[in-house]
Design goal:
- The protein has 495 residues and is α/β, with parallel strands linked by helices.
- It has helices at residues 11-22, 60-64, 103-107, 114-126, 128-135, 146-156, 160-167, 171-181, 193-206, 217-229, 258-265, 271-279, 316-327, 372-382, 398-404, 457-477, 481-485, and strands at 4-7, 27-30, 42-43, 52-53, 80-81, 85-90, 96-99, 211-212, 233-235, 251-254, 285-293, 307-312, 337-340, 355-363, 390-396, 441-443.
- Helix content is 35%, strand content 14%.
- The strands form four sheets. Strands 7-6-12-13-14-11-15 form a seven-stranded mixed sheet, sandwiched between helices. Strands 9-2-1-10-16 form a five-stranded parallel sheet, covered by helices on one side. Strands 3-4 form a two-stranded antiparallel sheet.
- Strand 3 (42-43) and strand 4 form a beta hairpin.
- Helix 1 (11-22) runs parallel beside helix 10.
- The longest helix is centred in the C-terminal third of the chain and has 21 residues, at 457-477.
- The chain is globular, with a radius of gyration of 23 Å.
Length: 495
């Protein structure tokens, strides 16, 4: 019998299981799909020999994760690929702004804003390890590096559009920052959207925007291998319909969103907690297309061939308009497109001489609108002749993504909306957000702090909550019963 059961083998479920196994717990991880990975899997989606990432594809936060950085993932088969340039943002005139590993080299593509960019992002990149440790370690704690955190926070709370227009004068730097900030899936006029731009730009300089050689599946395979080396057990093809069907365990952790947690274990919770889960808001969806290509993408801006990720959105104004349309419930005519071209830097992704492309755009939550043509039009706009290279394609809108992984509710890849206080209070206002009213049930998905991204920290923090709860319970049980009745036992034993 396992001491701890984890339901859902996404990156956070795996991270939670590894953290508990490292603490000496007997862990069983249950996964409904045939393989572990959640939204971090790879498969031949188009044609034989073309390896595509089903959902997550580029992993700066995995490279920056304090917890994943502690694990011997390389010894368990993981190889990181870091393209020469993390990101390129092309324009209609055939030029491009490029986020290079070097601040100085990046500035050379930004023209008049080189110094302003260096002053804005440079200090964050220099202190990135400390900044990432604070930002990815939860919200209810004092930062260990207040100087770096304060410098970040002075701009992070502002709307990304305001920061871009106030800090930069030219279209290149404004558009580059807007595209990076748009990864937050929120209109650039919303507060805190600058946080995504600042964090991911700094990550590009400090750790790059890498991806695993052979596909994102290799990252979760390495995590699974670490877990098994610690004695943990993974049970694929095991769908859990209710917490009641699980064998008894000291703790059960769910790598699911609040909607699934209500369905699986809602009857174990107080009415107040159930109401909080029911109020939880989901964000926009995505529409994704995978391409098998007969050759590399023919970018008009040659610099794009050096970048693992390319943002297709033109100017700041166009990127912002795409985000506003999505927020208003309208699929954008000219969507902001995030494109990854893994095979330029990883020959294992496609047959010799062939290539892959991975692209998605933001759409309203649950949108049924077909976006393949609009995505292809944006690629063709910056790479004339692209359509002639397409050997095969596979499109997936919100409904198909959710059918593949129920955590992608309405196509939401962030585990819930990132607007307002829900950016911080996930799944709601609670001193221990990974705990529930049932002292044996915990939540470890991206619907908890620190939020979305393949970094495993939601699972790690949930595991720490489990271990802290067990410690408090042991301390309480060590107090004589009579003293406990008088309230003289260890504090905090309830959840």
């Amino acid at each position: 019998m396992a001491e701890v059961a984890v339901v859902g083998a996404g990156p956070n479920g795996l991270a939670a299981a590894v953290a508990l196994a490292r603490a000496g717990k007997r862990v069983r991880l249950l996964e409904r799909a045939p393989t572990a990975g959640g939204a971090c899997r790879s498969a031949e989606l188009t044609l034989p020999g073309f390896v595509h990432d089903v959902c997550a594809a580029i992993h700066p936060l995995a490279a920056a994760s304090p917890f994943l950085g502690e694990l011997p993932l390389v010894a368990h088969g993981l190889q990181w690929v870091n393209p020469p340039a993390p990101l390129a943002h092309p324009f209609d005139d055939g030029s491009a702004a490029v986020l290079e590993r070097s601040i100085r080299d990046t500035g050379e593509t930004l023209g008049e804003d080189a110094r302003r960019y260096a002053a804005t992002v440079g200090p964050l990149a220099e202190a990135f390890a400390e900044l990432a440790a604070d930002l990815l370690s939860g919200v209810f704690r004092m930062p260990r590096h207040p100087l770096a955190f304060g410098r970040f926070g002075s701009l992070a709370w502002k709307p990304a559009r305001r920061v871009a227009e106030a800090r930069f004068e030219g279209k290149r730097a404004r558009a580059l920052f807007a595209g990076v900030a748009a990864h937050g899936l929120a209109p650039l006029e919303e507060p805190f959207t600058s946080a995504f731009g600042l964090l991911l730009c700094a990550a590009g300089h400090a750790v790059g925007w890498p991806f695993p050689r052979g596909g994102s599946q290799r990252l979760v395979d390495a995590l699974a291998s670490v877990l098994e080396s610690l004695g943990g057990e993974i049970v694929p093809g095991h769908e859990v319909a209710s917490v009641d069907e699980l064998p008894w365990a000291q703790a059960v952790l769910f790598d699911v969103t609040p909607a699934q947690l209500l369905r699986l274990a809602g009857h174990r919770f107080s009415s107040r907690y159930r109401a909080m889960l029911a109020r939880y808001r989901y964000g926009p969806g995505v529409f994704k297309v995978d391409f098998a290509l007969s050759g590399p993408i023919p970018w008009r801006a040659a610099q794009c061939a050096r970048a693992g990720t390319v943002h297709l959105g033109g100017t700041l104004e166009e990127v912002a308009a795409s985000g506003r349309a999505v927020a208003q419930g309208r699929p954008p005519e000219r969507p902001f497109v995030v494109l990854a071209q893994h095979s330029l830097f990883d020959a294992t992704r496609a047959p010799r001489g062939r290539h892959t492309a991975w692209a998605y755009c933001h759409v309203p939550h649950g949108s049924p609108v077909e976006m393949t043509d609009r995505i292809e039009a944006q690629i063709e706009r910056f790479a004339p002749g692209f359509r002639e290279l397409v050997l095969g394609r596979r499109s997936a809108g919100p409904a198909r993504l959710e059918a593949y992984n129920p955590n992608l509710v309405g196509g939401d890849i962030s585990g819930g909306s990132l607007l307002g206080l829900q950016l911080f209070l996930r799944p709601g206002l609670r001193p221990r957000p990974h705990a529930t009213p049932d002292p044996r049930i915990f939540l470890c998905s991206s619907s908890t702090p620190p939020g979305p991204g393949v970094h495993g920290m939601c699972g790690y923090l949930a595991a720490r909550t489990v271990l802290g709860t067990a410690l408090r319970a042991r301390r309480a049980s060590a107090v004589p019963r009579g003293l406990r009745r008088l309230g003289l036992g260890a504090r905090g034993t309830g959840v």
